[in-house]
Amino acid sequence: MVTAPGVGRAGVLAGVRAGFPFAIAGGLLALSFGVVAQGAGLSQWAAILMSTIVFAGSAQFAAIAIVGGGGAVGAAIVAAALMNSRFLAMSIALAPSLPGGPLWRALQGQATVDASWAIAARGDGTFDRALLFGSTAIQYVFWVGGTVLGAFGGGVLGDTDRFGLDAVYPAFFAGLLIKELHEPRARRVALAGGVIALALVPVAPAGVPILAASLAALAGLTRQAQADTAKRIRVGTAS
Amino acid sequence: MSETAALIAGCAIVTFAIKAAGPVALGGRELPLAFRSVVTLLAPALFSALVVTQALADGKHLAVGPETAGVAAGALVAWRTGHIVACVVVAAVVTALLRAL
Predict the structure, then answer these.
(1) What is this structure's pTM?
(2) How far is CA A62 from CA A109, A218, A226, in A?
């Protein structure tokens, strides 16, 4: 066991600040979820309950798209699991940074959401828990709040695609991606990950191409990449 | 209503299990340099895949549409300014304008 530093109030507040812009963007997505979910046959309260206890945007959209298209509940749950499969890679990456017993670690792992995971990364393969918890907390508030607004006020919006809200999600990830592209190796990995994903789109169920793209990160196994990581660990680069 | 309850409960359970799996299996232990080196490159690989599968594909088909241009415009804003809110708003506005044409 490694001893991880405690979670300080200042660190959590820093996480809340860092997560705030992502929370706003996520709130827009949640707004559109609140509207779309009703189109798929969920009641207002069901949409809000789903955002409250699932709290995984891409999985929620994937699941209701299947149910709304007349698909089976089981198929919708499988689609949600596949969309979430990237969190398996992220949660494995996070694992060494989460201390405590198995149950406590499982609960801390629930804070794994895309933007927080990226914000909390120190750049040396470890993660800052306080930043993770703070940025996830603010995103959760906006995720649920946005869903409430969409569920009860969305009727006036009508078709959210008309407002380009379907572009919000990929743009959100494009914004996260751009912050990762400072180094040539990261740019090559991003390119490889994109190519792997696109190649699998026609043949694999949604979500699988994304998990498969994580194979591009194996470029980190080269001697040079490991030497660079070792250097960052020694310098203690805080991101 | 019971179908909806099953849907929500099922999605909640699989999401919980996936996010718990890594920390439960591997938590609280120091992992070798090779692992940490791969982890540092996971973000560009995953986020790139998330962008291209949504901006360049529609279901199982590769496709470009108004949202592709919108996302490109948003990405440009994120690159030049670093503002995530401006990025998503520009992406939505450009997409909406192209659809309205």
Answers:
(1) 0.89
(2) 22, 28, 37
